[in-house]
Structure prediction request, 427 residues.
Amino acid sequence: MPLTPRHLSTSLSDSLTNSRIVNVVGPRQDGKSTLVRDLLKSAAYVTLDDDAARRSLEEDPYSQLKALSHQAKDSGLPVVIDEVQRLPELTFALKRIVDQDNRRGHFVLTGSANIFTSGKAYDSLAGRVTTLTLRPFSTAEIYRAAPCRILDAVASDPKNPLPLLPKPRSYDRPEIIDLVVRGGFPEMRQLPDRDRMGRCSNYVDSIIERDVSAVHPVRKPDAVRRLIYQAAARTAQELNAGKLASDLAVRHETVSDYLDALTRLGIVLRLGAWSSAKAKREVKSPKLHLMDTGLAAALRGEDSNSFGIDADPAVFGSLFETFVFTELEKSLPFLSKHWSLWHWRADSREIDILAEAPGRLIALFEMKATSKIASSDFRHIDWFLTEGPGKSYRGVGFVVYLGEHLLSFGPGRVALPASMLWSFPAQ
Prediction:
């Protein structure tokens, strides 16, 4: 089976020409090694999942890396070190070597956590390292489309981005449910429902055994496991650390520490609360999103048959909100402007996702997990942009829904089919 092209490939190629060290981070099994091996087929590889290789590098990291560097120099290819989070102390030796030999594309590191944010790592490699983040497949990658550029359209014309958006691809409700339930992990998404659920359970075990302990001491592995399952159950909900600690029967500090570790590993994504400094009683708590809806659905015991006509719409609604958030988050590195993502709530009004760019530019996203849409679905967006904290910003509001038609509901109000996330044509 041919490899699915990754949008990050171009960024990786470019980084190899202008950085001494390229650091590719992302959750376990998201395709980092495949991406690097596909681009650098003949490079020298070392994986720190190999106990012998890891022990050898622990004993004498500088000499071992120096020898690998010398061997790779003639080929013009980098030395690739996989699962580098298992030995963050390597950064001391890396700094010595790249300061002696400043050739570009000297080392490529891959790992489930960024070792340069670790207390065990040398932190003075500024200017020498480019860090790239790889997530599980985006839906655009699955359909071999270009990255989702909805926010580029907003940046080009905040008042009327609709003409800049492509024609949405045709799809139906079973297709979007299948995309949400399968998720984006390259191997797991291909499996039947029952096998995928078993694989996801094993995946959680491997995270706890191999990854969490590399970034934070784990005294209660079962508490970490239950926390991941709770994050799946509460995806797209605001974080209440006190309630979570109570439900898990652990200390508040323990929940905070383990959540920090899972965030560093990219398993949990925290969507911060946007503050206007004007509206009263704005919520300050972040929302928690599990980074992959396939993993979330499996850990919740849900498959494609869980979301039929008789199902509780709120159950699919939280997964659908996480799906849209993660798709937008995956698109950020490929946009023409720097956008940051937030959520907002005050009193009874809520904006699921608020995207902000320099120049007081915002885009609001509300999710509706049905195929019908009405002007009343824009009521929170309308208030936010005309009377609320967004009235001094340039912006547009989207309601992402399960219909097929791209519709205008007045200036700066757009009904967006979910398929727009994978409708931008590949160049």
Summary: Residues 139-422 form one domain. The chain has a mean pLDDT of 91. The longest helix spans residues 193-215. The longest strand covers residues 349-357.
